[in-house]
Amino acid sequence: MAAVTTAAVDAVSSPDLELAKQTSALTVQETTPEAGTETKTAQLPPHRSHDPQYNMKRSDPFMFGSRYLDQGDDVFEFNAWDHVETDDAYKEYSEQQFAMQRASPVSEFDKNRFNSDPARFWNLFYKNNTANFFKNRKWLQQEFPVLHRVTAEDAGPQIVLEVGAGAGNTAFPILANNKNPKLKVHACDFSKKAVEVMRSHAEYNTDLMQADVWDVASEELPPGVEENTVDVVLMIFIFSALSPLQWEQAVRNIHRVLKPGGEVCFRDYGRGDLAQVRFKKGRYLEENFYIRGDGTRVYFFEKDELARIWSGVFKAGAPTNENNNETCDNAPDSLPQEPSTTKEPQLFDVEELGVDRRMLVNRAKRLKMYRCWMQGRFRKK
Ligand SMILES: C[S@@+](CC[C@H](N)C(=O)[O-])C[C@H]1O[C@@H](n2cnc3c(N)ncnc32)[C@H](O)[C@@H]1O
């Protein structure tokens, strides 16, 4: 993985659409200057330029993540900064928000309503948001190089399973870049409507792809997928949709389908992300777990928690690594995972787990806002 660059900002093909639009609107990318423009850029590095001629389309990730905030910089000079620490004011504001959220939780009646049939709310989501589904995730292969390997012409038979595939925002870009005639992509989602959307996509090609309904937290394996056969599992903003009570079954299912040595590519929300901080009263289900306005659920992860879960330690309070107790508020950008110190059997090696943070600035209101995502690669032992 490319040390968690901030390439992968399109966090959201999810219900977080408003926030995604805001992120997109505030994000400016930079490129290197064209020939003949060196004199101008010699005074101002191109990655710091305001000139729109240096801005690339948002979908090109390669120069993303290069606008670092240096000492003495005016934060409000630009509208987005990469690899930043949250400031004390934001931390304090977040804690106040969390206290307010905890004090006004979702009623027991509603908790039951949202937890008893989560697929219903995702079906509604996919019914209502057809126009917003498709994104071109060019950052995928950059962040998860294993996708280069399995899609290479001579890679031979390779099976990729995407869990919680939604509208296929990950599966279709993989197919679009695929040169391997022996690749098979299983794209599963527990929402029937999402599976319908994938099956009706113009690029749905049953020689290479199979979209099916599957609940990752069920007792079954996905249709047509045998134990110990999958090379790569993709989990992009799906784990956050599960209740903490479902984590163990989901991780065990993923472990079951993967070949020994097979890899999980993971990206999801981090604790302290703006999407969490701005939840209002009546949205709190339990710590770090919320219900959105459309009835879909979302969890915000801490780094040590993810390391613990994927190592196969499901009891809270049993950290696998004392140095790993980090949230978006204090974690360095990307840390290699150290070995577990617990005696419990390990399911996965945490090969990489990093925090991807980005500061957005509303220059008009002189407000600083932080997005935060967790990204990792876990290998079946
Ligand atoms: C935030 S969306 C992400 C969709 C897609 N991975 C993407 O990044 O565009 C979460 C997806 O997880 C699916 N999902 C939620 N719980 C699930 C479960 N238990 N099993 C399988 N899919 C689930 C939802 O239907 C939804 O499509």
TrEMBL record:
InterPro entries: Methyltransf_12, METTL2/6/8-like, SAM-dependent_MTases_sf. Its EC number is 2.1.1.-. Pfam families: Methyltransf_12. Residues 1-55, 321-343 are annotated as: Disordered. Residues 21-42 have a biased composition (Polar residues). The keyword Ribonucleoprotein does not apply. CDD domains: AdoMet_MTases. GO terms for molecular function: tRNA (cytidine-3-)-methyltransferase activity. It is an enzyme of class 2 (transferase). Residues 1-12 have a biased composition (Low complexity). GO terms for biological process: methylation. Residues 161-263 form the Methyltransferase type domain. Keywords: Methyltransferase, Transferase. It comes from the Eukaryota. S-adenosyl-L-methionine-dependent methyltransferase. Belongs to the methyltransferase superfamily. METL family. PANTHER family: METHYLTRANSFERASE-RELATED, TRNA N(3)-METHYLCYTIDINE METHYLTRANSFERASE METTL2. This is tRNA N(3)-methylcytidine methyltransferase.
